[in-house]
Amino acid sequence: MGPARQALRAATRESHDRLDKAAVLQPLVRPDITADQYARALAVLYGFHAPVERALGEGAARLALLREDLRVLGADPDGLPEMTGLPPLDSAPARLAARYVLDGSAHGGRAMLPGITRALGFDARRGARFLASDGLDMAGAWKALMVRLEEELVDPAALATACATAAALFAALEGWTAEHA
What is the DSSP string of 85-107? Predict the structure, then answer.
């Protein structure tokens, strides 16, 4: 693991650990999750992912999968609340940090997928496409992002911006999940 990734990981470790215990997200790793709990967790995740993806202005393929999953669960994504007060994503280091946060969450989603499939019957084809990152090469995207982090965050100021942004995004998500507990 390169120094940029180590720094980002250290900057977000405590928030990441707390998010793993967030009341609204905790059912995602429980064998007794209900469809209502699943829908609620996805709605909260949508409220975070949608404004971040829009701020990045890039392709939002995973967001499209999340919208589809919400529809399968009977929710209208356009009617869901979205988080406000994002940290600025107006620099290359900040955008890299946001990508690190979003793409990192894809790895967690894939780890949750088998439990969701067992408990609720949703899979990569229906209802859990977001968790599965269906049709996307997230492993390849992650490897490419790791290379970019190490190449583009060599400057200490750029790395500091990226770490501060990643930490602020995690903190914002923590607040968002607490608000919707």
Answer: -PPP--SHHHHHHHHHHHHHHHH
